[in-house]
Every structure is written in structure tokens, then in C-alpha cells.
């Protein structure tokens, strides 16, 4: 017999946090750098995306999602792909040091 409590939630329960996201009314290009973007244009776009994330009511959930799925691109939960990668590295080093 199936144990219903172990089944994943309905799709809307897993993703409805996105409906409350501050970025929903923004241009998605703000959160994902175009090919070849560098320098001040890159820094300005990232800073603008992070300002929106800073006001977001679901920022933590967004970041959890990006970390869980190893989202490779864009600003999610106020962190860039490089910042998330560094966070994963720190987490992995901490976990590895506990198992020695």
C-alpha cells in the first residue's frame, strides 16, 4: 500500500512561492547575463538584480531551490552563480571535515 505522506506535493505546492517573487514583474534578462557581458555593465546588472532580491518575500525559498537543483545560471535568492558555487564548496568542505 502506498504511503501518501511520502509522495511529493502537488506541483502548485512546490512552486507557488514563485507567484510571490519580487522578480515576477521584472525583465528576466536582469537576472541572467547575456553572452560576453563584462565589466561595469555586468556589475550594474547584477547589483540591480540583487536589489530586487533584497526586497523579495520569498528570497530564502528561491535560494534554497537554486542550491538544491544546483541552478547553473543567473541571480537566484540574491546570489549569483559564482556565489552559489562558492557556498556549495564551503558546505562540502564542512561536511567532509565532519566525516574524517
TrEMBL record:
Post-translational modification remark: Upon Fe-S cluster removal intramolecular disulfide bonds are formed.
Cofactor binding comment, as recorded: Binds 1 [4Fe-4S] cluster per subunit. Following nitrosylation of the [4Fe-4S] cluster binds 1 [4Fe-8(NO)] cluster per subunit.
Cofactor(s) for this UniProt protein: [4Fe-4S] cluster
Binding site for [4Fe-4S] cluster: 23, 53, 56, 62
Positions of the 4Fe-4S Wbl-type domain: 22-86
Keywords noted in UniProt: 4Fe-4S, Cytoplasm, Disulfide bond, DNA-binding, Iron, Iron-sulfur, Metal-binding, Transcription, Transcription regulation
Subcellular location: Cytoplasm
Described function: Acts as a transcriptional regulator. Probably redox-responsive. The apo- but not holo-form probably binds DNA.
Family stated for the protein in its record: Belongs to the WhiB family.
UniProt-listed HAMAP family: WhiB
Protein name: Transcriptional regulator WhiB
Lineage start: Bacteria, Bacillati, Actinomycetota, Actinomycetes, Kitasatosporales
Gene: whiB
